[in-house]
# Entry
Amino acid sequence: MTGVDEPAVDDAAAQVVRLLQAAGRTVATAESLTGGWLGAAVTAVPGASACYRGGVIAYATELKHQLLGVDAALLARVGAVDAAVAASMAEGVRDRLGADYGVATTGVAGPDPQDGHLPGTVWVAIATPGPTVVVDALVTGPADRAAVRRRTVLTALTQLAAVLRRDREEPPSAHR
# Structure
């Protein structure tokens, strides 16, 4: 067991929905390795329809370009597992779905490496009304595919909650 369990994800999702509702803000998700789990965690919370705009599961690399607007040259140069790709995915889903915040996950769940990256190499990005926040969510130690995905969802939710709390204290326009 990785120490990340379903109640932790459920609690983090509930906190995100409460914070979004209190701020009158919305979120959209762009997912690769999490395959919709992030959006499912948010929408499992009663009242999520007031703050969740929708999500895009862009599992295939070319869909990151086609659906989210990630620069094709960037994808060709660095592959799908990169901080700049995560940031572009988050910004693309925020803009395309008309949300205040966009959250993106990309990485390697395993069991095999991808584009020279080991399983557990993960990037989470949060596009805000101010700057985009990128989190290196590298899963350290031995981890199976499910553990990597679960940890990524929890990281995305806890980081989004932290950004929402920060924005509550200091308006996003002050971050520029």
Notes: The two ends are 40 Å apart (CA to CA). The first strand starts at residue 27 and ends at 31. Residues 25 and 137 are 25 Å apart (CA to CA).
